Amino acid sequence: MIYNLQRLIRAKKCFVEVIIRNPRAIGIFDSGAGGLSVLKAVNQVMPSENIIYVADTLHSPYGTRSQGFIESRVLEIAEFLVKQNVKAIVVACNTATAAAINHIRNLYPIPIIGLEPAIKPALEMTKVKTIGVLATQATLESEKYLNLKSQLQGDNQIIEKASSYFVELVEAAKSIDKQEEARIADELAGFIGQVDCLVLGCTHYPFLTTTIRKIVGEKVKIFESALPVANELARRIKDQQNASGSGEIQYYSSDPELAKITFNNLLEQEVAVSLFDGNAKS
């Protein structure tokens, strides 16, 4: 009798374990393909997790859009993901995080992880008390970024550069020729010889890390947010992770044909991209 009771207790423990291992997908979205850098990090940290990725390709980049427009798009995409019954959402876009993450956190009772430029670790690492931040105009002008900068800067100098060109370059899925490299060098010129830490404040930029490093030099430490965000997501859903599985990934875009070309190039594999049919006024 005691033996059978022990077996029942063990069986119940196993059953509970199965229940808390949650196969519901993680939702990740960005204005375009930049968030794929975050998707790759999430897949690296939690390879068994199912993921739904949404790119608002038709309206990319967000960096030059108005606050109201960005908010409307973020709300539209978040609603779509919640309807897909995701267990968490990653706003894989610094601009969208700054503009609207508080809105969707107030609407939905699931973990919602955003991005912010990694200026804290950069400021902790700098030896020359000067760091660079490369981001979109909307991010650099956002209240969220300005508050973060005010809290952390101290007596350090932060050199900022807004660049939508890097976003356009990644979205176009172009190979980097000498002409493109020269243009990238022009964009980075203000950092050369001035900083020893450079923050990539947009999820598109890590796809250009090899070229950026070549231009700024090996001694400059480069910071981006994809892996820290993936680790934070894993911590937030540690009791809901998928125990096993192949980690199915579904891709959506407001312009599937264009997104497919970019995704295939950046992911170096063929993927199917379905239509995300969200509506917003431009």
From TrEMBL:
Domain of life: Bacteria
Record-annotated active site: C93 (proton donor/acceptor), C202 (proton donor/acceptor)
Annotated GO biological process: cell wall organization; peptidoglycan biosynthetic process; regulation of cell shape
The keyword Transmembrane is assigned to this record: no
Keyword set, alphabetical order: Cell shape, Cell wall biogenesis/degradation, Isomerase, Peptidoglycan synthesis
PROSITE patterns assigned: ASP_GLU_RACEMASE_1, ASP_GLU_RACEMASE_2
Catalytic reaction annotation: L-glutamate = D-glutamate
EC numbers on record: 5.1.1.3
Pfam families the UniProt entry points to: Asp_Glu_race (PF01177)
Protein family (similarity comment): Belongs to the aspartate/glutamate racemases family.
Entry function: Provides the (R)-glutamate required for cell wall biosynthesis.
UniProt-recorded name of the protein: Glutamate racemase
Species whose genome carries this gene: Aliikangiella marina
